[in-house]
Write a structure and sequence with these properties.
It is a single chain. The chain is an alpha/beta fold. The protein folds into 2 domains: 4-97 and 177-249, Rossmann fold (3-Layer(aba) Sandwich); 112-173. Helix content is 28%, strand content 28%. A 6-stranded mixed β-sheet has the order 6-7-8-3-9-10, with helices on both faces. Strands 2-1-4-5 form a 4-stranded antiparallel β-sheet, with helices on one face. Helix 5 runs parallel beside helix 6 (190-201). It starts with a strand and ends with a helix. The model is unreliable at 81-85 (pLDDT under 50).
């Protein structure tokens, strides 16, 4: 059985100018331990698909039909007229067995709360002083430039690159079985990128869905490529069968 299965998922957004079709009968499967790149032109629906898989559809965005299945747990993303919280099958696995690094990493943090306090929430069973100690150790492991300063800073005071490192490490903290990465290295310098790739690769058996516009990174890290175009997954190919030039031809870089 596939670890992740998306079946005929269709999503629309309700805008002032009318309904906009974002996903059109999207289907895909990922096996345990599989690293898959999701690639395609900008605006083709990659981030919408990631949000739908996780159950993070925006307030004006709805699922018409289709399901997302994670390790046998079936979820229907938010539908018009339904109470999302009462119909969320992924509530107990999201953030634990399945994790997500958003493209706009600032959206993942509360702008009114210090970074250290937000990291401390990962250790809810510990006391105050132990949480603070673990938060600093976490930031040191993330290899940010000044762990103590960043711990005392709000997200608005921290660079996008440092936030990306913190977000990747946060996603990995519970040793998830599936992590979705939406352009996770876009703000990182080459050394920091290599550090974060090394951290990801430490988690043996973890499945990764990597949304990227970097063909070289996809070819290096992933066994397969899912190509999207105009709201649907058009093809799945083995990475070994594709050249970097093949990938570039399928995207707008």
């Amino acid at each position: 059985m596939a670890l992740l299965s998306v079946d005929q998922l269709s999503i629309h957004a309700e805008k002032e100018e009318g309904d906009i079709r974002l996903l059109k009968s999207v289907s895909l499967e990922m096996e345990k331990g599989e690293w898959t790149a999701l690639m395609g032109p900008s605006g083709c629906g990659k981030t919408t698909l990631a949000n739908a898989i996780m159950g993070f559809l925006k307030a004006d965005t709805f699922c018409d039909y289709g399901t997302v299945t994670f390790d046998g747990i079936v979820n229907v993303p938010k539908q018009l007229g339904l109470d999302f919280l009462e119909n969320d099958s992924f509530a107990d696995v999201r953030g634990k067995r399945m994790a997500y690094v958003m493209q706009n990493v600032r959206e993942a943090f509360d702008p009114t709360e210090k970074i250290g306090a937000q990291i401390a929430e990962l250790y809810e069973e510990d006391g105050f002083f132990e949480k603070r100690k673990k938060a600093i150790a976490f930031l040191e492991k993330a290899q940010v430039k000044d762990p103590k300063k960043i711990s005392r800073s709000s997200p608005l005071e921290v660079s996008p690159g440092e936030l990306q490192k913190v977000m990747i490490m946060t996603a990995l903290e519970k040793d998830p079985e599936l992590v979705i990465l939406d352009e996770p290295f876009s703000a990182l310098d080459p050394l920091s990128k290599e550090q974060m790739i090394a951290e990801l690769q430490k988690h043996e058996g973890m499945s990764v869905l990597l949304i990227t516009h970097e063909p070289q990174t996809a070819k290096r890290l992933c066994q397969s490529i899912l190509f999207m175009d105009e709201g649907t997954v058009s093809e799945k190919r083995k990475t070994a069968d594709l050249s970097v030039e093949d990938m570039i031809s399928r995207m707008e870089i």
